Amino acid sequence: MKKILLALVAGASVLLLTRCHETDDQPIDNPPVVVDPVAGIAVSTRDNTARMLSVFNPDGSLRWEKKVGPNNGLIGQISYHRGILFHSYGLGIYAYDIKTGALLWKGFDSFMTASRPTVENAVLYSCTDTYELLEIDPTSGTRLKNPSVLVGDLVPYPPLIKDGIAYVVASTPLAYYSVKAIDIKTGVEKWAVAIGYNPPRGLRITGTTLSLINGGAQLKGININTGTLQWELNDHGYFEYITDGDVIYALWGDRGIAAIDVHTGAKRWQREIAWPANQLKNLYLYKEQVIFQLVKGGNSFLMTAINSTHGDSLWSKPQGYFFPDLSAPIISGDKLYQFRTDMFEPYETKIMIYDPATYNRLDSIDVEGESFEDLRIITESEH
């Protein structure tokens, strides 16, 4: 058993990564980062009176900002397609000009739009509390199909669209969840997999495998053609994961991280963390580094990086004692973006910009609002 001991800059804190399990390591292709220049930064926030939508220029200057609704309803969610910013918080869908903030169209407020609008192949998809999968022209806001595809259950999360099939998380009125594959053209349900009374999360498709974490914190791989279970891991409580090619990197509980084959569920390596963390979160991959946060006692935290191919420890950095609320990291080119909300008054809210290789702070943008809802980085290639 090999142990790697890393002393932190802070002195007393020590991180211990233990090699628990290993199969033949396969090289992971990490292509060079292609910098797609940022064209805009959109964020949805709210305070105790209203909900705000803000768009910033690449240099951090404010392009436009407006109050877009009350502070109640579902969490505001943002999507983007060719100059149009879509925003939904459960009471319809709103489309804004990304340059000026002008309202281009609004609609679908006669029922609850229960999921983020998702654009795929120039079609805007959204699910509703009337068990429908809407297909909308993103430019005009008109329905492309009426009546819509009926899912048969409430769909509280964004649909995952691939090759004409919508993969959705469906819930009965008693909150029993399943994952369904529905042919968008015909409306026919191809298959359904029961999950249970806790919602699944993190649906991703790699090749013919749909991966997810179910309500019991188990990792699963499902064949998208047949709906059959290809593999399942229940050796740990998995709470967060990312994919890169055919590899899943998954955080389990407060103890460790594993690299897993997305098609078979076989582990390439697994590491246990001896630093007394209460939570592991905000996992991301940059070149050959897998980087994540370790939180202790709800306040102090550090960033740690390990090699993505072998799991060997690379570096760890203390990040302060009072742990802020940080959104999931978004990497665009050579920068990493996170929304930061302080845990104590005066509750400053900022978009933080870091070097993804070192997690060194590069810049920050002040944002109105006390609570974070959604963040979207818009690049030149999609602008």
UniProtKB/TrEMBL annotation:
Gene3D superfamilies: YVTN repeat-like/Quinoprotein amine dehydrogenase. SUPFAM superfamilies: Quinoprotein alcohol dehydrogenase-like. Residues 93-233 form the Pyrrolo-quinoline quinone repeat domain. This is Outer membrane protein assembly factor BamB, contains PQQ-like beta-propeller repeat. It comes from Chryseolinea serpens.
